[in-house]
Design a protein that fits this description.
Distance between the termini: 28 Å
Strand content: 5-15%
Structural class: mainly alpha
Length: about 130
């Protein structure tokens, strides 16, 4: 399934140390509202987890729901859930643990990029 938002990676812009803002700019280069929502959600989850002294960056589904309702309101709520459902979860930036009823900022995105790099290198050698 094609997604709007088109990731564009400028090789010269990718650095070993980048802010979340710069990374999200690359992931959502053509859809500003998705970029803004993704940045706010990821930042809030990380900050909320730190405030609560959680070992991993996670929030409950109800905490996320309250944040989305308060921050984005009625008009942008569906867009916020779309960003979670169609981008952050499939890209591996977030995971949803249904049994524990929580969203966690995931390392799967980094693993996915490594696998993509390995596949590219294998293709190039082959």
């Amino acid at each position: 399934m094609r997604r709007r938002g088109y990731m564009y990676l400028d090789k010269d812009a990718v650095k070993g140390k980048m802010t979340l803002d710069k990374m999200v700019d690359m992931l959502f280069s053509s859809t500003i509202s998705y970029r803004e929502i993704a940045l706010e959600l990821l930042s809030w989850i990380k900050d909320k987890a730190a405030e609560e002294h959680r070992a991993d960056p996670w929030v409950s589904r109800s905490e996320l729901s309250r944040f989305i309702n308060e921050r984005f309101g009625r008009h942008r709520r569906s867009t916020a859930y779309k960003v979670v459902r169609e981008f952050l979860l499939p890209m591996g930036l977030l995971t949803l643990d249904v049994d524990r009823d929580r969203y966690t900022i995931s390392r799967e995105f980094a693993r996915t990029l490594r696998r993509l790099a390995e596949a590219y290198e294998a293709w190039l050698r082959g």
